[in-house]
Amino acid sequence: MHPGRFLQSRFLVPLGISQIELATALGVSRRRVNELLRGHRGITADTALRLGFYFGMDPHFWLGLQMTWDLHLAAVERQTEASDRA
Predict the structure, then answer these.
(1) Alpha-carbon Rg of the chain, whole angstroms?
(2) What is the pTM (predicted TM-score) of this model?
(3) Residue 15 sits in which domain range?
């Protein structure tokens, strides 16, 4: 699951936090939050720090989600390339 979608489904929805509220609390644009939640933007080190501070969590948690997602995408791409060669 994309880390932005994870953020939305596991944190924002259960806690009743809107995109606007999150953007304001993090000090980032609404567009940045929206793109993250839609899976069009990844979690950078800066975003991980901001989310970690806001939710009282280790920023490595957020970077770990992004890394797991990136590895998943790389594996899918590699599998596709291997299938295309066969």
Answers:
(1) 15
(2) 0.89
(3) 3-85
Q: Count the domains in the chain.
A: 1
Q: Does the pLDDT of residue 81 top 80, yes or no? A: no
Interatomic CA distance for residues 34 and 49, integer angstroms = 18
CATH of residue 68's domain is: 1.10.260.40
Burial class (CB in 10 A: 0-12, 13-18, 19+), 77: exposed
Q: How far apart are CA 50 and CA 43, in angstroms?
A: 10
Contact 46, 59 (CB under 8 A): no
pLDDT digit string (tens) for 61-73? Answer: 999 999 999 999 9
